[in-house]
UniProtKB/TrEMBL annotation:
<feature type="transmembrane region" description="Helical">
    <location>
        <begin position="135"/>
        <end position="155"/>
    </location>
</feature>
<feature type="transmembrane region" description="Helical">
    <location>
        <begin position="82"/>
        <end position="99"/>
    </location>
</feature>
<dbReference type="Pfam" id="PF07947">
    <property type="entry name" value="YhhN"/>
</dbReference>
<comment type="similarity">
    <text>Belongs to the TMEM86 family.</text>
</comment>
<feature type="transmembrane region" description="Helical">
    <location>
        <begin position="7"/>
        <end position="28"/>
    </location>
</feature>
<feature type="transmembrane region" description="Helical">
    <location>
        <begin position="111"/>
        <end position="129"/>
    </location>
</feature>
<dbReference type="InterPro" id="IPR012506">
    <property type="entry name" value="TMEM86B-like"/>
</dbReference>
<keyword id="KW-1133">Transmembrane helix</keyword>
<protein>
    <recommendedName>
        <fullName>Lysoplasmalogenase</fullName>
    </recommendedName>
</protein>
<keyword id="KW-0812">Transmembrane</keyword>
<feature type="transmembrane region" description="Helical">
    <location>
        <begin position="189"/>
        <end position="210"/>
    </location>
</feature>
<dbReference type="GO" id="GO:0016020">
    <property type="term" value="C:membrane"/>
</dbReference>
<keyword id="KW-0472">Membrane</keyword>
<feature type="transmembrane region" description="Helical">
    <location>
        <begin position="162"/>
        <end position="183"/>
    </location>
</feature>
<feature type="transmembrane region" description="Helical">
    <location>
        <begin position="34"/>
        <end position="53"/>
    </location>
</feature>
<feature type="transmembrane region" description="Helical">
    <location>
        <begin position="60"/>
        <end position="76"/>
    </location>
</feature>
Length: 227
């Protein structure tokens, strides 16, 4: 690891810790937290754009998704912007789905992960279904989008395997956030959800960077990914 990489990872960790600390103490003005919250995602977007491999596809879709999520984080500080935050997050997942749905790896056993993912999504939706005042149509649409996103990442063959836990962390983060918002009862939910949120994006955005394409096919041909 060179000095630039070390500096990036150190700065990213410092930004994440700075947000978590300022978000949980009352001595810092809320404007500071509002500024710090989207910075880790923006830094990840710049790092990904800089190191993007030439053979990888749909860079714009992934970067647009990160930008939408960063925008959602920027407006989430105000409860009056809940609808805007929800719409930006949904558009972010649509962009992530567009990026991840570039290839389908049904020939690998990891497609079996789709079974617990679908069951988990159904259980999470059922847990929130009977909350009074909750718009069930929006809940279903959001849950379906997150589930399709996780499934697309699982079946994508052009990314490193770390994308799978990254997608699951993002989905679990959304469940914790939604459960705490509408039901409550999760101690330190904001801390846990944001740690999973940042960690999921970190793994997901490094998945195309760390992927090593295979140059061999099952029939013995050698692939040239530079074409």
């Amino acid at each position: 690891m060179n000095a630039v990489s070390s500096g990036f990872y150190l700065l990213w960790a410092v930004l994440v810790m700075a947000f978590l600390v300022t978000d949980n103490i009352a001595l810092v003005p809320p404007e500071v937290t509002w500024i710090l919250r989207p910075l880790p995602l923006l830094l990840l977007a710049l790092w990904t754009a800089w190191h993007w491999p030439q053979y990888q596809q749909r860079r714009l879709a992934l970067l647009v998704g990160v930008g939408l999520f960063a925008a959602a984080d920027a407006v989430a500080w105000d409860a009056g912007h809940f609808t805007l935050t929800l719409v930006l997050s949904m558009c972010g997942f649509v962009a992530y789905i567009t990026w991840a749905a570039q290839t389908v790896a049904m020939g690998q056993l990891r497609w079996m992960l789709s079974i617990p993912v679908i069951l988990g999504a159904m259980l999470a939706t059922y847990r929130l279904w009977y909350v009074p005042g909750l718009i069930h149509e929006a809940l279903v649409v959001y849950a379906v989008l997150v589930t399709i996103f996780v499934l697309a990442v699982i079946l994508c063959s052009r990314v490193h395997r770390i994308a799978i836990p990254g997608a699951i962390l993002l989905a679990f983060s959304q469940w914790i956030m939604g459960h705490q918002m509408f039901v409550g009862g999760i101690p330190h939910a904001a801390v846990y959800s944001m740690i999973l949120w940042y960690g999921g994006h970190f793994l997901l955005l490094h998945a195309p960077l760390w992927h090593q394409p295979s140059r061999d096919t099952p029939f013995g041909y050698v692939l040239d990914h530079g074409d």
